[in-house]
Write a structure and sequence with these properties.
With about 230 residues, this protein is mainly alpha-helical. It is built from seven helices and no strands. The longest helix is centred in the C-terminal third of the chain and has 47 residues. The radius of gyration is 27 Å and the shape is elongated.
Length: about 230
């Protein structure tokens, strides 16, 4: 049985170490550029969308107003479910969807909720609470500037619909709902940023520990032996 080759072992460890370093550096670069936020937040988006779909189905069958309204609601929710099923399958396979698909799916969430609000009478519709689930997923998964853009779109669309369908006595309630949407976006985004920094710090500490272990296990230079007189 041949003796173990220390140099081969060191090369193997160094190769695995370098691959781990490259992966960690890619994650850190993604965190700095806002790319890693979306990769880690797709799971939150998918589950938030499933909650939205399930609750939407429950409310649709709970108190349907008429057949046409029920058909519109079911068509929108089923279309949303098909899209979310695709995204969920991609996550289970370990291949997160590309960014544009995720952005488009989140925009579809907002459009579906807005359509349901309009069909159910605007301000009096209880479906506006689905904006909360959509904004939570967006604020946790998307970079700050995209979260601000989507939130502004939701506030603008729902604000116009509510002002057009609510009485002047209901304006304080409209303002409160819009303020709640903005607050959810801010809180979710702050949580996502803190989690991103925590993840980056954990990777940096992990790299530092590996560096220390590598330096401690590196062979020290051989010391010259004293010459014994004959």
């Amino acid at each position: 049985m041949g003796a173990a080759d220390p140099e081969a072992d060191m090369l193997a460890v160094g190769g695995g170490r370098s691959q781990g370093d490259r992966a960690d550096q890619q994650v850190l670069a993604g965190e700095r550029d806002g790319i890693g936020v979306l990769a880690f937040g797709q799971t939150v988006l998918v589950w938030a969308r499933w909650i939205l779909i399930g609750t939407g189905l429950l409310l649709s069958f709970w108190s349907p107003t008429d057949l046409l309204t029920l058909q519109v609601q079911l068509a929108a929710i089923i279309a949303l479910a098909f899209g979310n099923f695709y995204l969920h399958v991609q996550l289970l396979r370990g291949h997160p969807a590309i960014d544009r698909v995720v952005y488009g799916a989140s925009l579809a969430d907002v459009c579906v909720v807005t359509a349901l609000v309009v069909v159910q009478g605007g301000f009096t519709s209880p479906v506006f609470i689905f904006y909360f689930a959509a904004i939570v997923g967006i604020s946790v998964a998307f970079p700050t500037y995209l979260t601000a853009g989507y939130t502004a779109l939701v506030i603008g669309a729902y604000g116009l619909i509510s002002l057009a369908t609510a009485s002047s006595d209901d304006y304080p309630a409209v303002f409160t709902r819009l303020l709640m949407i903005a607050a959810i976006a801010v809180c979710g985004n702050l949580f996502a940023r803190n989690e991103s920094h925590r993840r980056a710090d954990a990777i940096r500490i992990h790299q530092e520990l590996l560096d220390e272990m590598e330096q401690g296990s590196s062979p020290s230079p051989s010391q010259p032996q004293p010459v014994t007189p004959a």
